[in-house]
Amino acid sequence: MTDFFKGIPAVKFEGADSTNEFAFRHYNPDQVLLGKPMKDHLRFAVAWWHSFAWPGGDPFGGQTFDRPWFGDSIAHAKLKADVAFEMFDILGAPFFCFHDADIRPEGATFAESKRNLEEIVDYIGEKITGSKTRLLWGTANLFSHRRFMSGAATNPDPDVFAWSAATVKSCMDATLKLGGQNYVLWGGREGYETLLNTNLGLEAEHAGRFLQMVVDYKYKIGFKGAILIEPKPQEPSKHQYDYDVATVYGFLKRFGLEKEVQVNIEQGHAILAGHSFEHEIALATSLGIFGSIDMNRNDYQSGWDTDQFPNNHAEKALAFYEILRAGGYTTGGTNFDAKVRRQSLDPADLILAHVGGMDTCARALKSAAAMLEGGELEAARRARYAGWEAPAAQAMLKSDLAAISADVLARGIDPQPVSGKQERLENLWNRYI
């Protein structure tokens, strides 16, 4: 045991009237909604990078956190793991997620980094055996080091492509060994700054081949989980190849991977792409590629990805509604890709940020489940498209323009606009949240 969280109790559910800040007011893991416990609907995960690896810097200032595990040794990495699992136990968090660089020290060579990763994976594996917390997904950091400044799979240097492929292999091996349920590819540098030095077609071909290799390796090692891509617009590259769900789907179709790869959708990225979170989720479910989510929020006055913990249940409720409407998660979950503010220095701040985020999501889930169970919104949607249930309407979809035109003339069709009833439906939604 470490003493980093000394004096902080295990967080339990106490109900909406509780004034204990170290208690859940809405997240009751065993409460059954739509036939399933809340913990199985939400499948919360803690992000190792933001919670334990981030030093508190921003574009205008450096480290503000002084953590006892900050350092470049295996001993520091093991202490970090000890603290992480203590926090998982305090929160009752069912899952965690990691990048390789979050959990192991960087070596002087690839071989040394690989040995460090393997050693710390063995250590984390021992921690898992004594914990209720499991691995939701692993991933590789192919964006922080200067070697990735021009991308990983899309880098103009074939040696960087090779390094990246070897790194992903080692991270997939680690994810399998730790019983991970998914593997994520986060293309943080897969994009470009200017067309003056970029071959778009070549970079796309290389990215597609890279992903095909990942899928092939999944089957080679017998990994049963999902392969996920996380859409990300603009930041850090001016033009990102994985801009949003629609862009990723087009990429998957191009390389014949739409049945093999799903998406991990982040709230902050959806907003930066000019969409709503619920839009990206609904689109992914309609395309059959929805996998998992990263839960956070942006500061809408800043205009960039600030990775803050969610605190507005109404904003998240429609997102959970679309997840429930599609049948919920399979291997995915709700990963808090969020970090405390750089002025929030205390260990308690780290715990309470997750408590607030978990309660916000639980409250949103309850609203979404009640709305789905009530059925009014789904009934309104069905009523709006009811005309398409008629045999003649279905037959028209198998017809051609000439036949349809003749039918319009013969029947003298003169369709009149029908209200979309948006405000009535917004009022209905507001009654649930």
TrEMBL record:
Mg(2+) 1 binds at residues 230, 266, 294, 337. The active site is at 99, 102. It is an enzyme of class 5 (isomerase). Its EC number is 5.3.1.5. Its main location: cytoplasm. Gene3D superfamilies: Divalent-metal-dependent TIM barrel enzymes (3.20.20.150). Its cofactor is Mg(2+). Keywords: Carbohydrate metabolism, Cytoplasm, Isomerase, Magnesium, Metal-binding, Xylose metabolism. One of its GO terms (molecular function) is xylose isomerase activity. GO terms for cellular component: cytoplasm. InterPro entries: Xyl_isomerase-like_sf, Xylose_isom_bac, Xylose_isomerase. Binds 2 magnesium ions per subunit. Mg(2+) 2 binds at residues 266, 269, 305, 307. GO terms for biological process: D-xylose metabolic process. The keyword Ribonucleoprotein does not apply. SUPFAM superfamilies: Xylose isomerase-like. It is found in: Cytoplasm. It catalyses: alpha-D-xylose = alpha-D-xylulofuranose. Transmembrane segments: none annotated. Homotetramer. PANTHER family: PTHR48408, XYLOSE ISOMERASE. NCBIfam families: PRK05474.1 (NF003998), xylose_isom_A (TIGR02630). This is Xylose isomerase.
